[in-house]
Design goal:
- By secondary structure, this protein is mainly alpha-helical.
- Helix content is 71%, strand content 2%.
- It has 6 helices and 2 strands.
- The relative contact order is 0.16.
- The mean pLDDT is 94.
Length: 177
């Protein structure tokens, strides 16, 4: 169980990384921020969660990227720094999902068995984050209000799913001899 200081540090760190990813999007440093967040994630796994949590952390980050990839492919979400014809979500968005995955077993662990609450919070705060990013000029929600509805539904599904994945791995690791 994480201490209160670690929980606060994890939460604040993610907020700072969110801003760093947005800054990277505005300055074209998405690849650099992905490398930096990957390094920080390795340190997080080494010092906070342990290497046995590396795989579930990566699975949840990839799952989040898939949700955004679906929205991007259908044109519900667009990214300001993406060149025309880009096939994948930008590196800074992948970095953001990787950073978010580090919160699921630390500062958001209290939500792991509260799936309905996680869905409601995801449906509220997911769109707020995208609207904030849109105000900062790094994300566009081109189809109004369908884009925002997509983000709300995606986060209402993604949030409990990601927390469930981490919870299942936690239980499996506890059962190990």
């Amino acid at each position: 169980m994480a201490s209160n200081k670690l929980i606060i540090f994890n939460f604040v760190s993610f907020q700072l990384l969110w801003w760093l990813c947005v800054y990277a999007a505005k300055t074209g440093l998405g690849g650099a921020v992905l490398c930096m967040v990957a390094l920080l994630t390795l340190l997080h796994v080494q010092w906070v969660e342990g290497w046995q949590q590396g795989l579930p952390l990566l699975i949840t980050a990839l799952t989040g990227c898939i949700f955004d990839q679906i929205g991007y492919m259908f044109g519900w979400v667009a990214f300001a720094d993406q060149s025309t014809g880009a096939v994948y979500i930008p590196y800074w968005m992948m970095a953001l999902w990787l950073a978010f995955a580090t919160t699921l077993n630390v500062s958001m662990r209290w939500l792991q068995h509260r799936h309905l609450l996680a869905a409601v919070l995801g449906a509220i705060f997911g769109p707020l984050a995208y609207l904030g990013a849109q105000q900062l000029g790094v994300v566009r929600l081109p189809l109004w209000p369908q884009s925002l509805i997509w983000v709300a539904i995606a986060w209402a599904i993604a949030m409990p799913l990601l927390l469930w994945i981490r919870s299942r791995f936690n239980q499996a690791l506890l059962m190990r001899p």
